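New to this. Please check this fold:
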Amino acid sequence: MRKLCFLLLLQLCLFGGTSVKIASYNVENLFDLNFDGTEYSEYIPNTIWQWNATTYRKKLQNISTVIAEINPDIIALAEIESDTSLKALQTMLSQKGVYFKYRAIAGRKKSSVKTALLSKYPIQTREILVSPSRSFRNILEARVTIEGKPLHIFVNHWKSKSGPESERILYAKALKKRLSELPRNSDYVLAGDFNADYEEHRRFVKIRKHNDTRGITGINHILQTVDKNGELYTTKTLPKEGNYNLWMELESSKRWTHIYKGKKEALDHLIISPSLADDTTSRYIKGTFHSHAPAYLFKGKSLYRWQRSRTRPTHHTGLGYSDHLPIVAEFYIE
């Protein structure tokens, strides 16, 4: 790793370019203190649940601690209620010495939680409509300008596995359509909580409530992260029309960000364009992708998610972080 960093630094000094750290984090329900009528019942402000100024500030402090430790240049976020809560997070991070000048949220729909982005680089944003239904969150697209060059980041939060795969395929198709509209060889990163494993095509086929698509998945088949034999692409096998899932950089035991009923799952992803997977010009810096997993984000064998009391009346305790781990990767942009 030290040799890699030294070679990168030498390259930057000799040829210019910029190293950019990109992260993705589902923060688990960062609501504000305004009542909009779309809140989950436990996040209606100042009720018996005790979602109030004290617990709100504690949630902001806890999540900002995690993000500040990563210190990304760009971070894709899931489960942000509003621009109010996003701005509060931005402010809390600045108090910790991490300054994001730019922010954006997919706020056109009145969904309970939304996708968002914080960036140290200028951004232009738009929203991708997945479905007119309010239950389908929009995808946030950000065109980030780095070294005068555009990098497109798509922030996703797909439908959960309480529903079938056909619901997640709607997201994949909307995303694929937009990717087809980008200029040829565009650099892009697909980030966020896809509610699908990196090898979902193998995991879901025997689960009847999920497999209503005859074995076709959004993340693997529609977004083309696997070949015709169902093998995930590597940098050596990636065709120009395929996408590379950075989980392939790690050994299989480390490929997870979430635990459900004791089983580890990789629901969060950084999937990159063929141009960034290539070793020419702008690219992913090999060996930098990882989940951010310090000890304080765990409680025993479980993730130390945002806590509710075990005694009645049930309420927020102000303890814990999120039910997801963040993921991080670095890129060389020139």
